[in-house]
Write a structure and sequence with these properties.
There is one protein chain. The chain is mainly alpha-helical and 161 residues long. The protein is 54% helix and 5% strand. The chain has a two-stranded antiparallel sheet. Helix 1 packs across helix 3, helix 1 crosses helix 4 and helix 2 crosses helix 3. The model has no long low-confidence stretch (mean pLDDT 92).
């Protein structure tokens, strides 16, 4: 399974906003500068998080983004679904009913395909794992120096230093 870079960007932005912890919104430009990311593309990912209720956005010159909910209530799966969409990673096309299988009777296909079953089981385990971890878990496991460094960088940006 491969996820887009937008998932990583969204997760890091959510962690950053949690570390900043105030109600002042942070602009896309500042988040993009912090991670050296393209502003327009990052903004699309952040807007997806707004639509999912993970982030709140404030329009205007002093606008930007902040967490819409406490970190304890935002799972990693919430962010993945917001950025990637809810579709399953594996889509069984029932190719066993094509080609040589096209002439077989319906009874030969009553049992689910073993491949589709195995893939679904693996995806459910992956989804359960991500749904079982919150931003708060990530924050708790991160080195304190990372949070401190982030706060210092954004404080300097606010004061213009």
């Amino acid at each position: 399974m491969r996820m887009s870079e937008g998932v990583e960007w969204g997760l890091h932005c959510c962690v950053t906003l949690a570390w900043l912890g105030d109600d002042r919104p942070v602009s896309t430009a500042r988040l993009a500068a912090f991670f050296d990311l393209p502003t327009a593309y990052l903004n699309k990912r952040l807007q997806a998080l707004v639509r999912a209720g993970i982030l709140a956005s404030t329009p205007g010159a002093r606008g930007g983004f902040r967490l819409a909910r406490p970190p304890e209530t935002i799972t990693l799966m919430d962010v993945v679904v917001a950025v990637e969409g809810p579709d399953e990673a594996f889509r069984c096309m029932e190719i066993r009913r094509q080609g040589a299988g096209a002439e077989l009777p319906e009874r030969d296909f009553r049992q689910p395909c073993g491949i589709a079953t195995a893939m679904r089981r693996a995806e459910l385990a992956w989804r359960r794992e991500l749904a079982g971890q919150t931003l708060a878990d990530i924050l708790a496991a991160a080195p304190a120096a990372s949070a401190d460094r982030t706060r210092r960088w954004f404080a300097l940006e606010r004061t213009g230093s």
